[in-house]
Amino acid sequence: MSRHNYAGRKYEVVAYDPEWPKLFELEASRLRLTFGEDALMIEHIGSTSVPGLDSKPTVDILITVKDIATVESHVLDMESIGYKHLGEYVKPGTHLFVKERPDNADRLFNVHVFPSDHPHVQDMLKLRDYFRTHPEEVTKYMNLKRELFEKYPDDYGQYRRFKDEYMEELKKRII
């Protein structure tokens, strides 16, 4: 399984963009057509789904399916709408597709496909919903992300390491 090769990966943290929910809605429409009835749920997740939260300008999308094996039948369709299939990447038994910006190699969308009964699905939704209703936590998280980017502008692995530690602590508090 290929996992998290962050070596040399460029990234940036930018101010919240009110276009992100609109980009999600447009892409979700394409994904509904691509996955059809296999997509049980399509949700906007991650930092771009939280109003006011600075983020990497990559829209994260969660698709749940009843049977993860059905994903293989959609790989060519996903490639036809501009996605690369990275396979099992984020969590065992899941799939990741990425779509890059046409003008550079920065990611525009990450599509995470999980079986509907995967425990991480509820974690992602609970975290998103918590941030949406707790502006003080948004400020705290945003400040951390900005500090990490300033400290590690060329080391995405370190940025992720410390950001992930914060998220694990937050999950212990709220989930």
Automatic annotation (TrEMBL):
Gene3D superfamilies: Beta Polymerase, domain 2. SUPFAM superfamilies: Nucleotidyltransferase. It comes from the Bacteria. Pfam families: GrpB (PF04229). InterPro entries: GrpB/CoaE, NT_sf. This is GrpB family protein.
